[in-house]
Amino acid sequence: MLAKVGEGAASFVYVVMDPKTKQIKALKHVIKHDKKDQRFLDQAESEYNVAQKVKSQHIRNIERIIKTREKLISVRELFLVMEYVDGVSLERLPPDSVEQAIQFFIQAAEGLGHMHRCGFVHADMKPNNIIRMSDGTVKIIDLGQACAIGTKKERIQGTPDYIAPEQVHRREITPATDIYNLGATMYWVLTKKNIPTAMSGKGDSLVEGLDGAMIARPKPAHEINGKVPPALSELINDCVEPEPENRPATMDAVMERLGRVLREMRDAAKG
Q: Is the CB of residue 109 less than 8 Å from the CB of residue 254?
């Protein structure tokens, strides 16, 4: 064990080294202190199972799960041996330019699109879950809330400043949910402001959120940051439409529009 790098409600994340191979890994340790902690064990096991089915260069790989049983029956704790992602989140280190931001968004969209084709939704996309590497690539981390397309969750799960209305109202989670979460993420990265959501300012204890029609529309990103092209601003607003059917149809469609904006920016720079 080299260092502790993260801590959650019932878990810790460490940087570790395999004594035989000398390879550096990340290790997530989840502990069940009492019955209410069972959901954290279940979530970690689900995270592992999803990761086995969504292998992508833009999604952190989880290599192994290790369970410690109490009295040979119930699982008391588990460990996830994960790919060590040596980078910094977009929350801690935002892109250096709008062009670089778009490059990061395209890669994140590619990873999410791959998940969707495999039948899963990330369901918690936010700046802290996109890690930028020194070589210019990005990795999506934290599959703890990932689920099969069409899942209806019993509890509200998501990060308030990025959560989609259907998550708050516990309706079906679909690829459109990730499109909303990514749109809210792009907005924050480019403006350092959060869009209004059904949980804005309410905290994660909210039981029922606002209807989509009551959610205020965000101020266009290009009106806050003059370096943002209007076409990118329009895409973001389309992504965070309250009703899923009004958002871009697929993550591939989001990628295509991001690529078009990037080409137009580069053409304009050439004069």
A: yes
Cβ atoms within 10 A of the Cβ of 158, count? 25
Q: Which helix (H) or strand (E) holds 140?
A: strand 138-140
For residue 261, the SS3 value is helix
* Structural domains of the chain sorted by starting position, each given as residue range(s) with its CATH number in brackets: 3-83 (3.30.200.20), 87-270 (1.10.510.10)
If you ran DSSP here, which 8-state letter would residue 240 be given? T
Closest-CA residue to 238 (of 258, 264, 223) = 258
* Residue 26, pLDDT above cutoff 60: yes
pLDDT in tens, 216-226: 789 999 999 99
Q: Dihedrals φ, ψ of 27, to 5°?
A: -130, 120
Residue 240 to residue 231: CA distance in whole angstroms: 15
Q: What is the DSSP letter of 11?
A: E
Picking from 24, 71, 229, 51, the residue whose alpha carbon sits closest to that of residue 147 is: 51
Please give the model's pTM, rounded to 2 decimal places. Answer: 0.91
> In degrees rounded to 5, what are phi and psi of residue 186?
-60, -40
Contact 141, 88 (CB under 8 A): no
C-alpha triplet 208, 144, 119: angle, nearest 5°? 90
Is the pLDDT score of 142 beyond 60? yes
Q: What average pLDDT does this structure show over 250-271?
A: 94
Q: Which residues contact 91 (CB under 8 A, 6 or more apart)?
A: 126, 127, 128
The terminus-to-terminus CA distance of the chain in angstroms comes to 53
DSSP annotation of 228: S
* pLDDT at site 199: 76
Beta bridge partners of 12: 7, 29
